[in-house]
Amino acid sequence: MADDATPQDTAFRLGWEEWVSLPDLGLPALKAKVDTGARTSALHAYEIEPFGPAARPRVRFMVHPVPGRSDLAIPCSAEVLDRREVTSSNGETELRYVIQSEISVGGRTWPIELTLTDRGTMAYRMLLGRQALSEDIVVSPGDSFCQPSLTYDVYHSTRVREVAPDRTLRIAVLSREGHSYSTRRLVAEGEKRGHVVEVIDTTRCYMTINSLAPEVHYDGKRLPRYDAVIPRIGASITPYGTAVIRQFETIGTYCVNGSEGIAASRDKLQAHQVLARHRIGMPTTAFAASPKDTGNLIQLVGAAPLIVKLLESTQGKGVVLAETKKAAESVISAFRGLKANFLVQQFVKEAAGEDIRCLVMNGRVVASIRRVAQPGEFRSNLHQGGVAEAVRLTKAERETALRAAKAFRLGLAGVDLLRSSDGPKVLEVNSSPGLEGIEKATGKNVAGSLYEAIEKHVRPEPVRRRAARRTAG
């Protein structure tokens, strides 16, 4: 130190207002009021919600970083340090969550504690109290912006996405099979990526349906706000399951698969009609209600052998191969006697007991396998003893799978194809495809790919500069 220098000359100087950054929370620019009269620092937050295990609780919240810009909202999450009663300048006491974050001012960075409170009516989104100021920091009450200024323009650039921390997401897996491979993998992979994943039994959900505040309840409590829902709706509860999904859609929750797509894919007749409407190749299919039409029904799909398939069939159950016309008539008669709805379908002999399962996620085939039936069996489903192996798709097969998933507007779909002499034919579009067979056969982290797609969809992109100008005007 020079002989004529004083400690105050070398101190880090702040004015009564400064530009600050909270990089841990993905907030690159905030105007803060520096107030040595306040002991605790505070950050503007709303929709404050605790989550995670009791041993290590976390809190999630939203921030409007720019005063007057309610259209720009940044989602944040952090570990809870404490809950503390704080008395504001107007004498009101509030119990607030306390978190920790790095603060950066003028090139200097240090950790501070922050309480979360709604400062929506305040001119400054952050208050910097004396507890956050070390001994070598000097505050000049008559000065403003002693440190270099930042700009709110950073929220309109792609740089925000590049530097934003990976925000913890809260995700619900709707499944009645909590111990199945697929559900366990979704939970394990989500938690590995730092998210909170909760398995919700679909049939234990119930709903409040109204125009102002629709809600989903579970075991006597209102379910929290989820960032995303992954439906694993079983065929036996499709009507109720899709009703629950519709309720989440009404609330505004992102659902990997929508209710309409799930319902259409489950109804075999409707599914084939959707494929036909989009001119997607499939085996010739016929449907009739009257027993008088049995002969014509068989003729419409060609000569035997042919397939007779229950509309509610899953995993290869309720699917029968009729080798002769007489056998087909007998099977159809038996199904009609049970008052069951069924389809009659062309048998693609050249497929030779093999089919292709393509797993499509958000417009991309992430994995594909060939399933081969056991000797003497025509059904290649893994639940029927089929064997799976990784397979390379042709361009036509890939395009067909993508078109089929898009036709049902499914974010996650298992598209089953047959390799026929005149190109790929879609057998089925599955809205709850299993992960075990395809992950083990291909060695790919399919669950991880699903979370990548969810993260990309849920985490918001920065507001475009043009939109911001239009709003400001």
Verbal overview:
The chain is an alpha+beta fold and 473 residues long. Among the domains are: 7-163, Cathepsin D, subunit A, domain 1; 170-265, Rossmann fold (3-Layer(aba) Sandwich); 284-347, ATP-grasp fold, A domain (Dna Ligase, domain 1). It is built from 12 helices and 28 strands. The protein has helices at residues 7-10, 159-163, 181-192, 238-251, 259-266, 268-277, 294-301, 325-337, 395-407, 436-442, 446-458, 465-472; strands at 12-15, 17-22, 27-34, 42-44, 46-51, 58-63, 74-79, 82-87, 93-105, 108-117, 126-128, 137-140, 170-174, 196-200, 205-208, 215-218, 221-222, 228-231, 254-255, 285-286, 306-310, 319-322, 342-346, 354-361, 364-372, 387-390, 412-420, 423-430. Helix 4 runs antiparallel to helix 5.
Task: Give a quick set of tags describing it.
alpha+beta; Probable alpha-L-glutamate ligase; ribosomal S6-glutamic acid ligase activity; 473 residues; five-stranded antiparallel β-sheet; Rossmann fold; disordered C terminus; elongated; Dna Ligase, domain 1; ATP binding; 28 strands
Helical content class: 10-25%
Distance between the termini: 52 Å
Q: Please tell me the overall pLDDT.
A: 84
CATH topology of the domain at 7-163: Cathepsin D, subunit A, domain 1
| Strand arrangement, major sheet | 2-3-11-4-10-9-8
Rg result: 30 Å
- Structural class label: alpha+beta
Spans of 5+ residues with little confidence (pLDDT < 50)?
462-473
**CATH architecture field of the domain at 7-163:** Beta Barrel
Strand coverage percent? 25-35%
Major sheet size, sense and barrel closure: 7 strands, mixed
Number of distinct helices: 12
State the total count of DSSP E strands: 28
Shape: elongated
CATH class descriptor of the domain at 7-163? Mainly Beta
